[in-house]
Amino acid sequence: MNGRRSTRHSVLIVTIGLAALAALNPGRRDAVSAQTPQQQVRPPVFRAGANFVYVDAYPRKDGRVVDNLTPEDFEIYEDGVRQTLETFEIVRPPQQTSEVERRDPGTSQEADRQAADPHRRLFVIYLNRYFLTMEAARTMREPLMTFLRRVIGPDDLFGVMTSQITVAQLSFGRRMDVVEQAIDQYWRLVARNFEESDVTPTTPYENMLYGCYINRTGNPDIDKWIVTSLIKRSRLDDVFGGLENLIRHLAALREARSNIMFLSGGFTLAGQNDRLMQYLWRGGPPTIGVDPSGKLRVGSTQPNEVDAQACDRELMRLATVDFKDRLDETLEIAARAHVAFYPIHPAGLSAYDVSVTSAGQRTTPTNAAVEQILDPLRRLALNTDGRAVLLTNDLDTPLREIAADLSLYYLLGYYSTNNKLDGKYRKIEVKLKQPGVDVVARPGYQPPSESDRRAAEGATVAPPARDGDVEAALGRLGRIRPDADVRVIAVNETAVVRVAVEIGRAIAGRPPWSAGSQVSVSLV
Predict the structure, then answer these.
(1) Taken in order 59, 64, 65, 68, is the CA torsion positive or negative?
(2) Closest Cα to residue 258, out of 382, 345, 156, 390?
(3) Is the dihedral of CA 68, 71, 73, 77 positive or negative?
(4) Ramachandran region of residue 49, left (φ > 0), alpha (ψ -120 to 50) or beta?
(5) 353 near 347, Cβ under 8 Å?
(6) Which of 22, 36, 285, 412 fits 113 for a cystine, CB–CB 3.0-4.6 Å?
(7) Tens digit of each residue's pLDDT (9 = 90 or more) over 280-308
(8) Which of helix, strand or coil describes residue 202?
């Protein structure tokens, strides 16, 4: 590098661990370049050993998003200690994106990296196959698709999940046809279940429960009650287990808010059922086998046989669950993970309630019964800063309001004054000076421990990135200071990327960025 150029530019030597490239994403081009000098408190300086924390905040007044706040309006506290605001952004995701503009990530790894970016919103459409009315399942398709087209911007991501999809199978993208296909498959599944009774198993696990106890007493009514009770409880267990796994997955994936659109019917939160315990075999029924066609064979010697001990283990597990406590546990996990629920139960579209597992029998529940089965959905929304859409013939209006509610948020950044690597959860509190404005923000975070740091240092380094990945990372580095002239001098694409870049002279009267003349960015 010649002397004249070095006097005109600040030169940065940046060491970037490849696994940390995603951490260098301070924002979308349009979000950052649109900032005014007042919106960006000061250019961030990478500090060795410092812990930089992003906090996404959603201020509202009288139920409406507040869009005119400044850095001076915010105060951030970590475990009660006031923090210095380093960065400030107003993120306004574009609305009404055309399908042509939507581009899915190239790989699942790239999708996960993009999902971790706090400048992108993340949605999961969870289609609960249980408890929903057939009429509601049929009519929700178009309003939901309209909502997604209205809300999902070109940088946002979403995934579709059902009780039959594990979090390991969950992938994120932007193409609407994925959701349409999933909803169509979901509708066909619900329509099939509509022809079945409560006692008919629909999964291999339910098939096992059926075979274990359908001949338990010899009294058809009692045996049907046992099996029906177990299958219903297993479905509640399936729903809560799926939601808890999803929440933990989202918490591990990103620090910013995640939004779950929970399409479900209402359900009753059953407590512990001691009556079921009296029907334990405690000695052994005939061996129960399942042949390749899925049919049960009592007294079978087939390879897939289930013995009495396995049957009783599942009965005890399901009978002793208190699902009221289970909901409280799920809410606690969601609140800490910064996950918001938007339950959608459009049963009001139908003049009657038809359970998908009641063999087509039409029933008109009492108001008290309706309130009881909808209470869990309301609590999911109320305790996670979401919104429940229940019992309405007009889905479009509340979905428009949800879209408006998510149309803007503030992204704040600070360096924690606590540099200890203790692995202990730290509570974040955001306060606003403007009266009458409420704010919901990231509730906290858990820093790594010393053992985590040592494990990370000894971990296998990710394979070298592609040219495009390095270029994208450098582009994001340049957008930290939108007025800077960033030029790549050298790139060594090995296990560690060493990049020499030039930060240009002041533009529009701003001083040069000299504070970054010595920079080291690495995965700690």
Answers:
(1) negative
(2) 156
(3) positive
(4) left
(5) yes
(6) 22
(7) 988 766 566 555 455 555 444 444 556 78
(8) coil
Using CA atoms, how far apart are residues 182 and 176, in angstroms rounded to an integer? 10
The closest alpha carbon to 396, from 121, 150, 158, belongs to 150
DSSP 511: P
Q: Answer for the pair 380, 126: CB distance below 8 angstroms, yes or no.
A: no
Q: Judging by DSSP bridges, how do beta strands 122-127 and 288-290 pair with one another?
A: unpaired
With 0-12 / 13-18 / 19 or more C-beta atoms within 10 angstroms meaning exposed / middle / buried, residue 496 is middle
* b/e 319-358 (16+ beta carbons within 10 angstroms → b): bebebeebbeebbeebbbbbbbbbbbbbbebbeebbbbbb
| Structure token digits, residue 86 | 């380093």
Rounded mean pLDDT, 356-369? 53
Distance CA 302, CA 280 (A): 23
Q: Which residue reads 């086998």 in tokens? A: 289
Beta bridge partners of 379: none
The tokens for 520 are 């080291």
pLDDT digits (tens, 9 = 90+) for 454-506: 776 665 444 444 444 544 544 444 444 444 444 444 444 334 444 444 444 44
> Is the separation of the CB atoms in 259 and 121 below 8 Å?
yes
Instruction: Please name the residues in contact with 178: beta carbons below 8 A apart, sequence gap of 6 or more.
Output: 160
pLDDT at 241: 93
User: pLDDT digits over 255-267, tens only?
Assistant: 999 999 998 888 8
Q: Tokens for 214?
A: 């359908």
- Tell me the residue type at 233: R
Of 457, 482, 408, 435, give the one whose Cα is nearest residue 43. 482
**Considering just the CA atoms, what is the radius of gyration of the chain in Å?**
27
112: left (phi over 0), alpha (psi -120 to 50) or beta: alpha
